[in-house]
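In this notebook, the sequence line spells out the residues, with the fold written below as integer tokens. This is how one looks.
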Amino acid sequence: MKKIYYLKTCDTCKRILKQIPLDGFDLQEIKTQPITVKQLEELHAISKSYEALFSRRSKKYAAMDLKNQTLTEQDYRQLILEEYTFLKRPVVIVDEKIFIGNSKKNVENLVAFLN
């Protein structure tokens, strides 16, 4: 499986997508096509953590005062399913390998892996 979960209004996602060959990838724009329970479970099976898939940069993270709460794995799961901005982006899956987020090191590893 080769899939990318991204947000088309995110400049960082656009920049990263330009750096990698997209041939053979299934692209899913998470605002117009929200992630399903099954898809999130597939991501969790590879990443082994809902927290790793969770973005603390979302404006709703501060608005909901989540930093002052103790969140469980199930809380992270539920929040990602309820609000697309809580999914750390982009998420790139190549077979059983997963690249989550836009950190410089993660993007470098992704580009190196695909080239």
In short: The two ends are 17 Å apart (CA to CA). The first helix runs from residue 11 to 19. The chain has a mean pLDDT of 95.
